Amino acid sequence: MAEKTLFQKIADGEIPSDMVYQDAHCIAFRDIQPQAPVHILIVPRKPIPSLDDLTAEDQDLVGHLFLCARQIAAAEGLSRGYRTVFNCGEHGQQTVPHLHLHLIGGRPLRWPPG
Ligand code: AMP
Fold first, then answer.
1. Tens digit of pLDDT for each residue in 28-49?
2. 100 flagged as catalytic
3. Per the confidence metrics, is the pTM higher than 0.90?
4. What distance in angstroms lies between residue 48's CA and the mean position of ligand 1's atoms?
């Protein structure tokens, strides 16, 4: 069996996290190095390495991640807006090879990103 990813270990409770939401398809927990007052990672339980590895069968799952982001943003009081980001690959600065959607908010965010 393939070795568990960091985020699978978090999902399985083997690594502690500040979990804010979970359901049958995904988990969401606070980023350990927050870039804003609210910085939450929404992670599918399925260990898809990156956006580049998505297939047509993941279509509903990706939609689900965004609906969860919206629900969590509301629960976190982000009524003035927020940002969702999938980093992908080397130039995208992805560091954990398990697909995850960043939900960032709680302050005005700059654009363009660095
Ligand atoms: P990325 O660079 O897009 O792959 O994002 C990975 C994110 O995971 C970074 O923002 C890290 O701060 C975060 N991270 C790494 N390890 C942990 C952990 N144990 N708990 C919570 N967040 C983590």
1. 999 999 999 999 999 999 999 9
2. yes
3. yes
4. 16
Identify whether 48 is part of a domain: yes
| 109 domain residue, yes or no | no
Domain hosting 55: range is: 6-98
For residue 114, what pLDDT band results from cuts at 50, 70 and 90? confident
Q: Give the count of domains, the chain.
A: 1
Q: Which residues pair with 103 in a beta bridge?
A: 40, 84
H helices, E strands: number in the chain: 2, 5
Q: Output the ligand 1 site: residues, CB below 6 A.
A: 6, 15, 17, 29, 31-33, 41, 87, 93-96
Decide if 105 is inside a domain: no
State phi, psi for 105 to the nearest 5 degrees: -175, -170
- The domain that contains 67 carries what CATH number? 3.30.428.10
